[in-house]
Specification:
This protein is an alpha+beta fold and 182 residues long. The protein contains four helices and eight strands. Among the domains are: 53-115, Nuclear Transport Factor 2, Chain: A (Roll); 126-175, no CATH class. It holds the Pfam family Endopep_inhib.
């Protein structure tokens, strides 16, 4: 009995060792509403790079001749927070592209995230957008966005359709393609 206990004491820790065998995490299938919520969060985050910036307060600093304002967001306080948030929505390649293309838009100054304020207008000839979500299989959804096309008098003249893939990648649900349509 004593030898059996000693054997268990030495073997139990080995069960926790990394054996090199990949164990796939079980990730629950999101509901259609969950996917819609992820789409809207992703759309908002994408606008922080191509349409506007994160909300900022009046506290500003000048770095290399550029004026940066301190970001005023509930959960995003540092550049690492921004990267972590984006990584919860998009694949690594999309996050890297977002951050590298706009590398001077966001910087950490003294441990806080600052942004260089910038806004651009949207396409005034694009109207309302309707989002539909379809489950393709247990690892992919497709978000279809149908956008009104407006004429010079701002009446609807047609529609265009955009597709976004929301997929299970490395144990996390992420958008594998994303862009702004306005």
């Amino acid at each position: 009995m004593k030898r059996f206990l000693i054997l268990i004491i030495f073997i139990l820790p080995l069960w926790g060792c990394n054996t090199g065998i990949q164990v796939e995490k079980t990730v629950s299938l999101p509901s259609i509403e969950d996917v819609k919520e992820a789409y809207y969060k992703s759309y908002e985050a994408f606008t922080w790079f191509d349409l506007t910036t994160l909300p900022a307060d009046s506290s500003s600093k000048e770095i290399n001749g550029r004026i940066y304002n301190r970001v005023n967001h509930d959960i995003i306080k540092t550049y690492a927070d921004l990267e972590k948030y984006l990584s919860s929505l998009f694949t690594k390649d999309i996050v890297q592209e977002m951050l590298s293309n706009k590398s001077t838009c966001y910087i950490d100054i003294e441990g806080e995230l600052y942004t260089m304020l910038a806004d651009r207008g949207t396409d005034i000839y694009k109207g309302e957008a309707i989002l539909e979500v379809k489950q393709i299989n247990d690892k992919e959804y497709i978000c279809t966005v149908e956008v009104e096309l407006l004429g010079n008098d701002f009446s609807v003249t047609g529609y265009e359709t955009h597709y976004y893939s929301y997929e299970l990648k490395d144990g996390q649900w992420l958008f594998t393609n994303f862009y702004l349509y306005k």
